[in-house]
Structure formats: C-alpha cells, structure tokens
Amino acid sequence: MTLAAGVLGIGHAADALAQTAAVTIAVDATGEGAPLERIWPFYGYDEVNYTTTAPGQDLLRALGSIDPVAPHIRTHFLLNTGDGTPSLKWGSTNVYTEDASGNPIYSWTLTDGIMDAITGAGALPLVEIGFMPQALTSAPASVAYQNSDAYNLDGGCFYPPKDYDRWAALIAEWASHAKDRYSDVENSWLWELWNEPDIGYWTGTRAEYLMLYDYTEAALHQVLPNAPLAGPAVAGAGSALLAQFLKHCATGTNAVTGAAGTRLDMVTFHAKGGTSIVDGHVEMNMGNQLRLHRTGFTTVAAVPAFKQTPIVISEADPDGCAACPVSMLPANAYRNSPAYGAYEVTMMKRTLELEARLGVKVRGLLTWAFLFNDRPYFAGYRTLATNGIHLPVLNAFKLLGSLGGDRLAVSSDGALTLDDILANSVRQQPDVDAMATRNGQNVQILVWNYHDDLVPAQAALVRVTVQLPASFGSGATVTHTRVDESHGDAYTVWVSQGSPQAPTAAQLSALRQAMQPAPLEPARQVDVTNGTVSLDFTLPRFGISLLTLSPASREDADAASPDAAGSVGATQIGGGCSCRVLRQGKHAPPTATWIFVVGSALAWVARGRRRVQRRAKSGHRI
C-alpha cells in the first residue's frame, strides 16, 4: 500500500538530514516538583467480548504491567442481550432477561468473566453503563435489536427503557453483585452512563437521557454511596447536550427525587482530532484535538458547581473510527507508525497545560484502542497490538508508564507554545519537547519529536542539560531507551520481512524481539560538572527517548569504560554523549550490547509481572 509504505523512511535518512542547530532542553532536578498527574492509563474498545479471549487477556496483562497505577478499562455493550460471541463493533453479556410472566432474570456469568479478566490483569473497570437489554428496550417491534451491520447504529439497544424503575433495579442489582464479588469496588471502579447520547447511540430525546441519568445515579449510589459516576460521554466537546446536562445536574429537577440537581462525580466527553490525506501523505491535527479539549474544559468551567469536578475525556484519539482499517480510510495509515505514539505523548503534556491554564481538574484521557481478533497483521485498525505483536503506540505508553514521582520544570527551545499549536497545529517546525520527573534517586526525561505531517524529515539534534541534586556527586549513570522506526517498531521489521500474513516461527520471533522499547546504547557513566550533565543525541521525527539518570557507584564507574561507549558509536561532546542511531539490519551491535538489550527486556517483563501479581492479590476475589 502506497500510503502505508510512505510512513516508512521518516527516520532512515535521519543522520544525513539532521538539523545543524541543536534543540536545547533544560531540566532542573534540584527544585521543588509537583506530583506527576498520570492522566494516560485509560484504554477502551467496542468489542467487550474480546476481553475474555486469549489475545485480549494477554494485552490486558501487558496494560496492567506498564504503569505503577492500575489502568482503567472502558468497553461498550456491557448490558446488551446475546450469547457473548465476539463480533466487530458489537458485544453482549445477557445480564437481563424476563420470564414468561415478565419477571426479571439476572445473569452475571459473562459479565463476571469480563470483570475477572480486567481485574485479574491488574487493571480496573471504567464501567460504561449501556446499552439497553432487549427485554427493557422501548424500541418498536419493527426495529431489530442488533445493528444492521458493523458500521450502522440502528439497533434497538440504543433506545430508552420502557420501564425506568426496572432499569434502576438492574443497576442496583449489578452494583450489589460487583460489591459482593470484587474488592474495594466502591473506591476503585469508575462508572459512566452510556456512550455518545448526542448521536446514534441514543435514539431518545435529551430529556430522556437526563431522566435515565437521574434513575441510574439514585440506583448506583443506593448500593455504592461513594462510587464515582460520570456523564454524559458526548461525542463532541461542543455538543449542546454537554452544557444542558451540566445545567440539569446543577439546578434541574431530579426525575427521581423531585429536588433540584443530581449528583455528578465526573464529567466525560469525547474528542477526535481528525486525520486527512494532503498532497499524498497523512496529516494529523494536534491543534484541533487540543481545541476540542479546550472547548470541553471551558464548558465545564462555566458551571461553578462543577469547575473542580474531575474530567475524563473518555475517548481522546487522532481520528474517529477505530474499526476502520487503512483499506477503508487511507488517512489511518499513521496507526502502525511511531507517529501515533508521538501524538499521544504530545497530547498528554499539552492537555496538562490546558488544565493548568483553565483551572479545571483532569482525571484522565482514554485511548480508544485495544485489538481486533482474526484480522490481518498490521491492517491499520486503531489498536495497541496486532495478532499479539505490540505496536509502537503501546511502546510510547510503556515509556510514559516508566515516569514516576514528582514532575520537574522543563524548558525546550524546540517546543512550540500552546497558543501556537491551538491556532496553527504543528504544520511548520516540529514540536520537540519533554517531560521530566524525579523519583527517589532517579531523574527521568522523556523527549519527543512530533509533527502533524507524515513525510520524510530532518532528525533533531538534541542537547539535554540537567541540573542534578548534590546527592549525585561527580558522576551519573545514564540509560537511554528509544521508540522510533529503528527501535521498538515491529512494523518496520514486518515490512522488511515482505509483509507476511503467515509469518514463520523465525519471523514471529523477530517481531516479538522488536516489539519492546529498545536501548539506544548500553548504560554508561557520565561526569557531573558543577552539578550539571549534558547529553547530546539525534532524535528522528516521531522518535521518543527516555533518559534515566541515577547516581553512579564506583562499580558503575569501573564498568563504564570509554571503549564500551565507543562500541555503539557514542562520542563525548561537551561532557555528554552523541549517540548514533543503529539501523535494523545494519551495524549489528556487539555481543555485550545484545546482552544488555535482552537483560533490559527481561527486567521489564519481570517488573510488569510483579505489578500484576500484587494487584490481582489485593483487588480480586476468586
């Protein structure tokens, strides 16, 4: 495919095209930091029954292992009627049916399997309450319960209930069952009513949605008084329903109590930046993404009662159709490339800047991407993995998940201003920026190179200067982990194999080796001069680097000889290092480097397993 292939090559000419003027990034690790706001461990997907498949459970375990806090998982179709067969853009759990006399029958077998898989993987549910069970829907008999096809929203499951009291009873039964089966549901699970009731997912009126919220809130909090409940999960941040919903919850008449207002614990809306084909290449739209975030934040802040209510953008994505592959929408060709991960990292930092500017409180940004079973390799669906192979975007989240502790002040003369991105997106110079944290004795700097346009481009020369705490003394040990076309990108390896749809065992092994963030060079020691370290390296377009500095011990100093550094093309420049990117298939690193790569990967996996085991023991009752 021409467009997909066009994504390649962005970084292959990096050394030849590198900018002559270096971007300078300054980090002060000696000052006061603020606790890092982890707004990214949120993921979701349509196909709820993929959760209990073997690939789904494997991916959930991966998500549960990459961040020090449990990620929240949101899915559609948790209340739909059916036998639980996995299907594209559909799902079912059969939780509610009625007997011949019209009496409710509750069944939690399929739902338990889903929630067991989520919690057992070290994750937590963001429970999307929807859609309408067949026995409760008010849809006319002429309307089929299931959608006519995967890409139409015309099923009877999107209608209001025919009996709001029976709906409330269902919610109360569900909450009670979850409370009995799982640990600390009230304080750790998040709940949200419906999905995008401002478009085809809801055929009722706005007033009927507000009524549904009132009944849901009363039923849920009768059983779980402290459980956070969110709404309205509108498709667009500028939707009139968002403002109407906030007004209703603040001062409107509650359909259950008759009093003024309805409790609201979190506000949710969705934002999709948009992608297009421009002059034969994919163009993303960071500016529009952030404008949508700003619109939603401003709408929330305009209602005094909810200005400090946590906000979750419960779908925040570069485009609007996760289930549309590249063959259907060519502009989705960004999905297999490191550009997707660079977009996500940029969006996270800039959203935190918007939060601070507007005085709101952001709880999370949810990535609507998971997997699609039984689909071709690298077909260009919006996913985190394809047939068990992690995509570069998932590796970007692994690097984000490695950050911890307090967030530090960072300046970059290669970063665009927030106002510039809001007005013009990232269409001229790239946005070369960073986030930094101090976690115990470790200082970490995440650096990225983002642009909207997926075209061949110059790599950035980057100099990171870090003012270190006195505890570092005269030396620091540096590790440098990278995601770009040559590191942590299984897609480029797959293309180099001839794009096989039935990879051999050897090809699969190579893909699995390529699907983790990779060290750019072995761990090494650098001198600390006047409390400062400077590190120089080349960062390809859409590349992401994680630098970790820790105090050097004497053993580190003995091991980190100049010869070891030189073996991977690193040279000392002004007290730092200039690290040549190793291309896959060229300049094979020495055995010592491969030992370091394998050791790092094993350590990463072991750390993740320990996190999952701790969460499973504390958060799930068998």
Structure description:
The strands form 5 sheets. Strands 1, 2, 18, 19, 20, 21, 22, 23, 24, 25, 26 and 27 form a 12-stranded mixed β-sheet that branches. Strands 14-13-10-9-8-7-4-3-15 form a 9-stranded parallel β-sheet. The protein is an alpha/beta fold. The protein is about 30% helix and about 25% strand.
Uncertain spans: 1-6, 8-17, 556-605, 614-622
C-alpha end-to-end distance: 48 Å
**How many helices does DSSP assign?**
17
Taking the sheet with the most strands, its summary is: 12 strands, mixed
Derived from helix and strand composition plus strand pairing, the structural class reads alpha/beta
Helicity, as a percent range = 25-40%
Could you tell me the mean pLDDT? Answer: 89
Strand content: 15-25%
Round the Cα radius of gyration to an integer and report it: 25 Å
Number of strands: 27
Broad shape: globular
